[in-house]
């Protein structure tokens, strides 16, 4: 007790945090390790296969496919920011993480989540142009604009969150305990010795910056698509559904994960079983990278054909026949 008191009184002594979420996993640590290891391998393989197929087949170098490739790259980025960390702590008796290591994970996981939503918003804009302006699609979605959108998908999240993250990096910490299995900005702020009122106010304001443009883009795009579909024939409606279906599934899957994260972070979850709490906290970090390759690899015919050819061992991938 005196040691803890001394640490709280001396902010320079707090050089690491303790992740108490792992204490509940210790009895089944090997099982959790095996599950997370298998999930990580599945994510690495599935996302890498789609990236490899899209990169290799030049006929797939179209805006929609390149945006999908961008989404898969972000899935690898987010998963690699989480799973090695989980596996390390599940195989260790110590559940400490340095302040620098924790802050690095905070930055990676938060930029992953914002980038995911930004890419989905850019993809909805691409679908809006493809369906509402089909004849002008290639002139509007030119190579230059495509490069700009791909770069924007990464630069916007990193710059916006980076500016806010500076406020967290400058804090000193008096407490060490984080009630999670990974580091999150909201929980790190609560350990600060400083007055975090400014952080909380700016944090609430920046939520609009992090998600509002994406929400507006997605809602606008699909509102316009819906209006076009309402005035089109059954064949056009079916084609629009096939074109937008995978993207809508990805958006819904990610939004469900974000909703789970908000619920378990902002409300008292002490009454909830530990397994359910952990599932809610990890959903948005695990299931989008896990399911996105399945959604796009199975649903989009042009990609599905190439994957089938790849696994059949054909030396030359089948040319894409456009529908």
Question: What does this 3D model show about the protein?
Answer:
- The radius of gyration is 22 Å and the shape is globular.
- The N terminus is likely disordered.
- Helix 2 runs antiparallel to helix 3 and helix 2 crosses helix 11.
- By secondary structure, it is mainly alpha-helical.
- The chain contains 11 helices and 3 strands.
- It is 74% helix and 3% strand.
- The protein has a 3-stranded mixed beta sheet with strand order 2-1-3.
Tally of separate helices: 11
The Rg value, from CA coordinates, equals: 22 Å
Number of strands: 3
Instruction: Name the strands of the widest sheet in spatial order.
Output: 2-1-3
Measured between the Cα atoms of the first and last residue, the distance is 70 Å
Arithmetic mean of pLDDT: 86
Major β-sheet annotation: 3 strands, mixed
Q: Would you kindly provide a brief summary of this structure?
A:
This protein is mainly alpha-helical and 323 residues long. It contains eleven helices and three strands; from the N terminus they run αβααβαααβααααα. Residues 1-12 have low confidence and may be disordered.
